[in-house]
Design a protein that fits this description.
- The protein has helices at residues 4-10, 59-74, 105-123, 140-145, 174-181, 184-193, 199-205, 217-226, 236-241, 244-261, 269-280, 284-298, 302-320, 338-349, 361-377, 382-391, 463-466, and strands at 33-37, 42-47, 79-84, 89-91, 129-133, 136-138, 150-153, 158-160, 196-198, 210-211, 330-334, 353-357, 392-395, 411-415, 422-424, 452-454.
- 42% of the residues lie in helices and 14% in strands.
- The two termini are 52 Å apart.
- Helix 5 (174-181) packs across helix 12.
- The strands form four sheets. The chain has a six-stranded mixed sheet, with helices on both faces. Strands 4-6-8-9 form a four-stranded mixed sheet.
Length: 467
């Protein structure tokens, strides 16, 4: 069974223990957390940042968590259940806005030591601690979950440590905890690539102890308390990989792979992470201490600061592109090179009608072949693949925007040329370099010039495509 019916059947009221009926908008002692105990003396701690659609792990949230741990240490409950009250997920990671203020290594070090002190206390609680994960659990959010003795994931959970994309590596103990929880080589790969795992793959890797449905949350907690649900543990292979000879060998291979993709002088985070594990991978406490120093050194670098700036520019672009425009149904791509061919194939895969222009038929043929391979990777049926390929229409005749044989309602266009290209929602084509009219005037020849949009990408290489 699949589709809307299954979706409706799987929907269950979120299990929030004694906080199920609490009004989170009312008076509360903390802005990011809710805490209560049930009749079995199990403490339920909900991550619920006030007036926000998602949870982010800010300095204020960590300080509040420290206050909550003060009370739990003084009056221990039978167990602690940690989960999110947000529908969007557990936690999307650290509050990146705070990174803008961290341009001094000494300041970063001080803040990290304070944050580590809090999460270390969570990890050291002498009671069963259970993180229940749904939706996004990324970066600092996953590092907090790693401090719990057990992790239960719902099927929609997605977990990862993507800090490498900001020119950093995990900084809240995640480098040590992940490499000592699962296969350390797999852990390093996850951190070096920023890869995200779904619930099934996270269970296979050993990152979570069990994947459960929402309706089984309470039963799973009782199974933990009764000892019927066992923790994921590292095996002989994992322990051998933490030895010094194994780490040196694996670190050398990691460096070689990393060097094929990035220059360590321009992108220092991968090398810093590899060195961190190579030198301290056999001692979790020493690795967490070294992690603080390494993270503090990376934060002020030009690479990290520029990538953080790009992150905010992307977020701004996302907000700017949220318009009420009619959906695009047709795309015309000029240039079937590596980027243009991939764009055309992906658009066809998404259900759009695509015309792909190039002066070289071999380039168009290669794009069609890559689209067929995409369908195979996505496990499309033979019929589904044929439908996708039918929507990808080769075109070797450049047309003007006024050519009605090529126009149609809701047609978006993009160009594989340097410079802006017209991108009409209804009618028209972007201009190839040898056409008479420039791209920025293409809308003048359309029956509906206001429907034109700009869309451009840059591609170097063949002269006939790059101009």
């Amino acid at each position: 069974m699949s589709g809307p019916i299954l979706s409706q059947l799987q929907q269950r009221e979120r299990q929030l223990g004694p906080l199920s009926d609490v009004d989170s908008t009312g008076d509360r002692p903390w802005t990011s957390w809710l805490l209560a105990r049930d009749d079995d003396d199990i403490a339920w701690l909900l991550f619920d940042k006030r007036d926000a659609a998602v949870n982010v792990l800010s300095e204020a949230a960590l300080n509040e968590l420290g206050e909550i741990l003060d009370g739990l240490e003084q009056d221990r409950p039978k167990a602690l259940v940690l989960r999110s009250a947000k529908d969007t997920g557990f936690c999307v990671g650290a509050d990146i806005n705070e990174f803008l203020e961290m341009k001094d290594a000494a300041v970063v070090t001080a803040k990290l030591r304070s944050a580590h002190a809090v999460v270390n206390r969570l990890a050291e609680l002498p009671i069963p601690t259970v993180a229940i994960i749904h939706g996004s659990c990324l970066g600092g959010g996953l590092e907090v979950a790693l401090c719990c003795a057990y992790r239960l994931a719902l099927p929609d959970a997605r977990m990862g440590l993507p800090e490498i994309r900001l020119g950093l590596h995990p900084g809240l103990g995640g480098t040590a905890r992940l490499t000592h929880l699962i296969d350390p080589v797999k852990a390093m790969s996850l951190m070096l690539t920023g890869q995200t795992l779904d619930a099934r793959r996270a269970k296979s890797a050993g990152l979570v102890d069990k994947v459960i449905e929402e309706r089984h949350v309470l039963r799973a907690i009782q199974a933990i308390l009764s000892g019927d649900l066992k923790r994921q543990g590292s095996g002989l292979k994992e322990r051998l990989l933490t030895t010094s000879p194994a780490r040196h060998l694996e670190a050398r291979q990691m460096r070689n792979k990393s060097a094929e993709k990035v220059n360590p002088q321009h992108y220092p985070a991968p090398e810093a992470l590899i060195t961190l594990w190579e030198e301290h991978g056999d001692d979790p406490e020493a690795m967490r201490e070294a992690e603080i120093r390494s993270f503090a050194e990376l934060m002020p670098t030009a690479t990290a600061q520029n990538l953080i700036r790009i992150f905010f520019l992307r977020e701004k672009m996302k907000r700017l592109t949220k318009t009420a425009a009619a959906p695009v149904r047709r795309v015309h791509v000029v240039g079937a090179g590596a980027m243009g061919g991939d764009i055309a194939g992906w658009c066809a895969y998404q259900g759009l009608r695509v015309t792909l222009f190039d002066t070289d038929p071999a380039m168009i043929a290669r794009a069609v072949k890559k689209t067929a391979a995409l369908c195979q990777r996505k496990h499309r049926s033979e019929t589904g693949t044929r439908d996708v390929l039918d929507r990808l229409i080769p075109d070797r005749r450049p047309r003007r925007s006024g050519d009605r044989s090529r126009t149609g309602k809701n047609c978006h266009q993009t160009g594989g040329l340097r410079g802006d290209r017209a991108a009409p929602e209804t009618g028209g084509c972007s201009r190839h370099k040898h056409l008479k009219h420039p791209a920025h005037r293409a809308g003048e020849h359309s029956a509906r010039p206001r429907s034109f949009r700009r869309s451009a990408f840059f591609q170097s290489g063949r002269q006939d495509a790059a101009g």
